[in-house]
Amino acid sequence: MTLPKPLFPIAGFPMIYHHVAALSKIPGMKEILLIGFFEPKIFESFLNDVKNEYNNINIRYLREYQALGTAGCLFHFRDEILRGNPSKFFVMNADICSSFPLNKMLEFHTAYPGALSTLLSTRVDKKDVHKYGCVVTDPNSPHQVLHFVEKPETFISDLISCGVYLFDSKIFDVIKLVIEEKRLKAVENGQESKEEKVRLEQDIVSYLGTQGQLITFTINPDTDFWNQIKTGSSVIPANRSYLQRFKKHESRRLSVSSPNAKVLEDLLKKQPSTLSQEPQLIQPVIIHPTATIHPGTKIGPNVMIGPNATVCKGTRIKDSIILDSVEISHDSCIINSVVGWGSKIGCWSRVEGSPEDAHHLNATYKGLKIPSATILGKEVNVSDEIVIRNCIVLPHKELKYSYHNEILM
């Protein structure tokens, strides 16, 4: 990874662009704050882009210089958050992808005036619940949260938190109370501490559940989606989910042909006279306007091709992310893969991963490599007639042999 995770491109846009786009659709949205540990200059270009697109919303980046925990960080920046006197505000984790039904969530929250917070939830397979924060609701009032347990060792519920919260501005009184209790306990244990490190889920959300001040809005899987983006492999289903949503609701974002009919002269000389003048696109596909795509290619579905990439004739690309300045030689095949910046794929080569559900896309399991998408790091060179299957390849590697189910360092 050569850039902050929140800026990794998915479906043609940085990961957190999709969060900003969803927030911008909320009536009356005035300000969006991005909070992180990264140097502010890293986000300058992104901020300029979203400010130009959403010029009616104040969008800023705040740097966290000390690990305070998510709730501690919110408390630290409470004056910034409350500056516009908001009655409510959303808190969203960056490493998730979703259709973000925020307006529905806001409307739902408004119907429960006694709640200090609404969390967005979804249901997952029982065998995966240990990976998430689990939500236990009242059987007689299914929206009322009784307990919240972060990554439980035993099964308690298949309803999990999506990492999206809507808080009443009074939540800062609760955070202050928790901080004071932590300090008091530290003093009692002879460990006087002035730390304000407070975890959002374990310290605040759990507390709200015990006080009857937490409710949950559950995603309808027929109309909305949600996935975590925790591993390199998980960007593949995230890319697919966003592209499929674009196809259904925002088809204007998709590429309809070779972006500007730009094909290198040396490629055209090799073009058979019977070849179509446009590549075959199976939607949804997003191709950057500066990419060079030979007419004799078949691309899609669920493909993103980044700036200045070159895709030569006879190439097949499916369910993949092709990043900036990648060169893919003729008659190659890329499936369920991420090809990193400046990488080169030789002719007649195959780079592929195994299509799996997002929840099972892990690099390792109990110390063993399991099938997943193939991830090529920055400036990886794959020689001609090579097969790379289910591999994670670190940057600047030269691959002259075929590899399967390996991590190449």
UniProtKB/TrEMBL annotation:
* Location of the Mannose-1-phosphate guanyltransferase C-terminal domain: 282-407
Q: Which residues form a coiled coil?
A: none
Q: Which enzyme class, named as a word?
A: transferase
EC annotation? 2.7.7.13
Q: The Nucleotidyl transferase domain covers which part of the protein?
A: 2-185
GO CC terms, sorted: proteasome complex
Q: Which Gene3D superfamilies does the protein's record reference?
A: Hexapeptide repeat proteins, Spore Coat Polysaccharide Biosynthesis Protein SpsA, Chain A
Pfam assignment, any one: GMPPB_C
Q: Which GO terms describe its molecular function?
A: mannose-1-phosphate guanylyltransferase (GTP) activity
Entry's PANTHER family? SUGAR-1-PHOSPHATE GUANYL TRANSFERASE (PTHR22572)
The protein depicted here goes by the name mannose-1-phosphate guanylyltransferase
Recite the lineage of the species: Eukaryota, Fungi, Fungi incertae sedis, Chytridiomycota, Chytridiomycota incertae sedis
